[in-house]
Amino acid sequence: MYRYILTLLLSSLTIPLCAQTKELSLKNAIQYALEHKAESKIASLEIENSQYQIEEVRANALPHLNVEANVANNPLIQEMPLSLGGQTQMIPFNLKWNSQASATVTQVLFNQAVFMGLKAARTAKEFYIINRELSDEDIIEKVATTYYQVFQSKELQSTLETTIASTTRIKDIIEDLHKNGLATKIDLDRTKVALSNLKSQRQQVVNAIELQQNALKFFMGMELSSPISLAEDTFQIDESVLLVEPNVEKRTELQLLEKQKDLLHYKKKATIADYYPSLAAFGTMSYQGLGDKFVWGGKPTDGVYWTSNAVIGISLKIPVFNGFETRSKVRQVEVELKKIDVQLEDTRQALDLSFKNAQKSMENALITINIQKDNVSLAKSILDNIQNNYKQGLASLTDLLNAENAFTEAENNYTNSLLEYKLAEVQLIKAKGELKSLID
C-alpha cells in the first residue's frame, strides 16, 4: 500500500516536470528571445523614453505659467534721508511685514532653435526604433548560431550512441567467445578499451551540450533551470538563398548611420539658429501687501495695505556677437558629418565583403557536405562488409575497430559540414539584411 501511494506521488511530480520541457524550433527560440532578452527590453524602453524626450522639447514651444508667493519680516528697516523746508529727516523705506503673490506667463513666438529641437527629437525616436532593429538582429544571430551548435553536438552524441551500441554488441560476442576459448583476452581487452574511449567521448559531448544549452538559454533570456529539447528538422539545406543578390542599403547598420546623419543636420541647423533673433510674449500679475502687522488677513484699518500690479509685453532678443562661438560649433558639427560619410562608405564595403565571404563559405560547405555524404555511405558499406568478414573469421578485430572509427569520423565530419553550412547561411541572411525572415 505504501509503495502504491509513493508511486502515485512520484507520478504526480514527474508529469508536470515533463510537461514543462520546451521543445524549441529555431523560430520559437528567436521569438522567445525577442520577448525576454534584456537587450530587447532595453531597446523598447529607449523608444518609450524617446517619446518623452519629444514631449520635453515640445514643452519649450508651449506656454509656461509660474506662480510665486512669499512673506517677509523686516526686523531692521532701512531709512532714507528726506529734505523738506531745509530740514532733513530719516524716513523708513519699508514696513515691518511684506507679502507678495505673482503669476507670470511666457509664450515663445519665434525661436528657430526650439523648432529645430522638436524635429531632432522626432528623428531621435526613429533612431531608437532602428537601433532596436539592430539589437534584435544581434539577438537573432546569437540565438541561431548557438541553436545550430547545440543541434550539431546532439547529432554527434547520436552518432556516438550508435557506435557504442555496435561496439558493445561486438564486446559481448567476443566475451562469449573468450569464455569458450575461441577468442583471446587481448581482443577482449582491446574491445573494452575502444568502448571505454567511446563512452569518454560521449561524456565530453554531453558536457558540451549542457554548456551550449546554457548559452542558448542565456541568449534567449530564459532561466537556466528550464528544461528544453530541440526540434528534429533543424539541418535543412536550402540552396536558393545563394541565388539572391543583397540590397546593402536595407542593412540596419547603414540605416542607423543615415539617421545619425539626419540628427547631425538638425544639430547644425539648431546651432545656426543662434544667429536668429528670438521673440517671446510675457505677462505678469502681482498682488502685494505691506504693514506693521502680519499682513495675511489684515485690512487698512489694521494698518495693512494691499496693492496690485500687472505687466504684459513682448521680449525680442537679437544676437550680435558672441566671439565666433556659434561659428566654431557649426564647424564642429560639419566635421562630425564628414566622419559619418566616411563611416558610411567603410560600412558599405564591409557589408559587401561579409556577403561575399558568407556566400563563398556556403558554396564551400555545400561541396564539403556532398563529399562527406559520400564518405558516410562508403564508410557504412565498408563497415558492413568487415562486420560480415569478421563473423566469418576473414577480418581481424583491428580491421573491425578501424572501420567503426572511420564510420564514426565520417558521420561527425558530415555533421560538422552541416553546421558550417548553417552558420554560413546565418551570415548570408544577415548580409542581405533579412535576419527577421528566420521567424517569418
UniProtKB/TrEMBL annotation:
<dbReference type="GO" id="GO:1990281">
    <property type="term" value="C:efflux pump complex"/>
</dbReference>
<feature type="signal peptide">
    <location>
        <begin position="1"/>
        <end position="19"/>
    </location>
</feature>
<dbReference type="GO" id="GO:0015562">
    <property type="term" value="F:efflux transmembrane transporter activity"/>
</dbReference>
<dbReference type="GO" id="GO:0009279">
    <property type="term" value="C:cell outer membrane"/>
</dbReference>
<dbReference type="InterPro" id="IPR051906">
    <property type="entry name" value="TolC-like"/>
</dbReference>
<keyword id="KW-0998">Cell outer membrane</keyword>
<dbReference type="Pfam" id="PF02321">
    <property type="entry name" value="OEP"/>
</dbReference>
<keyword id="KW-0813">Transport</keyword>
<keyword id="KW-1134">Transmembrane beta strand</keyword>
<protein>
    <submittedName>
        <fullName>TolC family protein</fullName>
    </submittedName>
</protein>
<dbReference type="GO" id="GO:0015288">
    <property type="term" value="F:porin activity"/>
</dbReference>
<dbReference type="InterPro" id="IPR003423">
    <property type="entry name" value="OMP_efflux"/>
</dbReference>
<keyword id="KW-0812">Transmembrane</keyword>
<comment type="similarity">
    <text>Belongs to the outer membrane factor (OMF) (TC 1.B.17) family.</text>
</comment>
<keyword id="KW-0472">Membrane</keyword>
<keyword id="KW-0732">Signal</keyword>
